[in-house]
Amino acid sequence: MKKMRFFGMLILSVFLFSACVAGPLTTREKGAGIGAVGGAAIGGILSQSWWGALLGGVLGGVGGGIIGDQLQGKDHEIERQQEQLDKNQRELDKQRKELERLRN
Hints:
By secondary structure, the protein is mainly alpha-helical. It has one domain (2-103). 90% of the residues lie in helices and 0% in strands.
């Protein structure tokens, strides 16, 4: 049992260390993390065993990752649309200036 606990803590430490040096978290990663923690808490409370917490964490992580991925996709789509709007606005300004120049 002590070996199992030590091994689990070692894996958790390696995971946390690697997550810290990877850079800022994406929306998908944040969603997966929040889902995993929430799922583990709810699973542990409802089943009152570590298996329930483990299962809840896995399911919550997957669900949170899926939701985070959808939100991240929406963010990218909004950014792309804003870039297109900015490009269109620059073209409009250019054409207005050209029209003014031709009128004078």
